[in-house]
Amino acid sequence: MAEVAATDLDEAQAAAELERLGAEIAAHDARYYQDDAPTVSDADYDALRRRLLAIEAAFPHLVRADSPSQRVGAAPSATFDKATHLRPMLSLDNAFAAEDVVEFDARIRRFLKLGPDEPVVFAAEPKIDGLSINLTYRDGRLVLGATRGDGFVGETVTANLATLKDIPERLKGAVPPLIEIRGEIYMARHDFAELNAAQAAAGKPVFANPRNAAAGSLRQLDPEVTRTRPLRFFAYAWGEAEGLEAARHSEVLALFQSWGLPTNPEFRLCRSPEELLAFHADIERKRADLPYEIDGVVYKVDRLDWQARLGFVARAPRWAIAHKFQAERATTRLLGIDIQVGRTGALTPVARLEPVSVGGVVVANATLHNEDEIRRKDLRIGDGVIIQRAGDVIPQVVAMVPEMRDPDAPEYVFPDHCPVCGASAPRDEGGDVVRRCTGGLTCEAQAVERLRHFVSRRAFDIEGLGEKQVRFFWDLGWIRSPADIFALRQKNAAAEEPLEKRKGWKDRSVANLFDAIEARRTISFPRFLFALGIRHVGEENAKLLARNYGTSDAFIAAMVEAKDPESQAWRDLDSIDGIGTAVATAVVDFFAEPHNVDAVHALLAQVTVEPEAARVVGNSQIVGKTIVFTGTLEKMTRDEAKARAEQLGAKVASSVSSKTDLVVAGSSAGSKLKKAAELGLTVLTEDEWLALAN
Ligand code: IVH
Fold first, then answer.
1. Domain assignment present for 348
2. What's the pLDDT at 74?
3. Owning domain of residue 590
4. What is the pTM assigned to this prediction?
């Protein structure tokens, strides 16, 4: 059948074809670059790409952010050197509503124990929708420029960054001996339009939005290409800084300027939540007139001593927040509802939509959260729906459009059985809204999802063993539980048809995979724990548990014992500060299942879990000690005291027992203090604690 010319397609056809072509090209790319085993001729592959580019040129607003045309070079991770940031590059928590901003200010006041009359001054500025980078200057000379990467390790793009007019190779004036400057690379809207016009005229791929254009332009193997691209930079933060003399964030921004680094002119100091909200409204009004794209504003506590006290939660500072703008919306059709089964058995409905462009990105799927949400919104298949997209978050279905409803459309009935294994899927006890498949590991979806979680980046991080390969080995019957991964090499050696003889695999890709697996035979305790995929045990809880138990053996023994709610092991677990009863119960339930214990033991026969020594800051005397805070502290809040203690490598418990090493008693301490006296424990006053902690 003859192909319809790109310009003769209607919009829905174009969107659908782009989606199909994108997936097809991505699959060919993976076979070519990762597996080294292409399955199409170069000519056929080129034809697919040409067709995609032609449709994108005819329908520029349908260019998908994940389109192959948006990827620069195809195997980028292999082409840039890795660079470890001296201090991690963090992300920001988000605020959407005015209440979130009021709560942000209130939280800071509570944490710092500020009186109602003490103003907290915030540095506020637009949140640029670009990509963040890290510039290391030694004695004022640019020595390293890197992308953010995963926040810890980025890619070295020094030569490319050095081509930007906004990035000086030498800072002016008196500069610290070492400083990591952080900021955003972006492309102005008019520059983006010009670049895309030139790209289209030259038959080259156009970019979906300025952000992709900036990213694509920066990650060029040839810096001379970057030089021709109109990239700009704003500096807004810093990482490691030796000898930086400043008391306020705003002072540092002034220093940045004096050194010749551009900072955002829309900067303002705000003295109350009301002033923050006024700033937000002001910038939102100006948004369309700003020469660059922004997706909100950022507020940071101006006083650096307060920033230091506030510290971080997980990967975001307590002293800053991003206040996002109203999400972009569009109307489309709900074509169907898919039910996905996650690793804990949760049934999650996903809306399949007629593809539609929302703020420059084509959306074809959206989250529906759960059964109640579908009922509350009275969504039916075929409905017209309003969807919204904010930044990087998954698009959401906001509401159905009553005028577009087919009066005969039946109500949607949520399945009460697992669509994958057929086991019953009742709602959780305790009034939870989630239906869970009861099939456990006999449910293929759950088992595969758990394996996928196990090998994922923040867990075992096995390179070359992604979703696709897990599925592949599952289908072959070679892996059923995590331990099997570490026996893959033997399995392959003994197989009638080893991988090397199969389509899509080459000797080198097989060897690389086995090497990557071998490289993970030793693993940190928190990663190991997180990888098990126990409900409620995310990275933070995994870290807390690892620190409290020290070794995996001690931990597993304690969890098995904690099955008895009368046991000391259960009381110890339940009294770890930060581990609530729901988490404790989930962990104990996990180890109460013999098949889980078997799987963990089988895994431990294959891997070595490093014991977790408490992380120490400085030369602390309280490393590894268990501390209980009780009574009212005058000079810092409980939260701050707790954060400080953990930073120093201590464990904080909520109840006093014979395992407690130190009790810090504030004023009007009651029963815990009494118990401490009975047990003959060391009790410190608040001042003694401060002396120790500082
Ligand atoms: S401050 C520790 N200020 O937003 C806080 N970030 O969502 C450091 N961003 O990764 C970030 N404009 O890439 C800050 N004026 C601004 C920003 C900004 C854009 C980005 C940055 C960060 C992300 C967090």
1. yes
2. 36
3. 524-610
4. 0.58
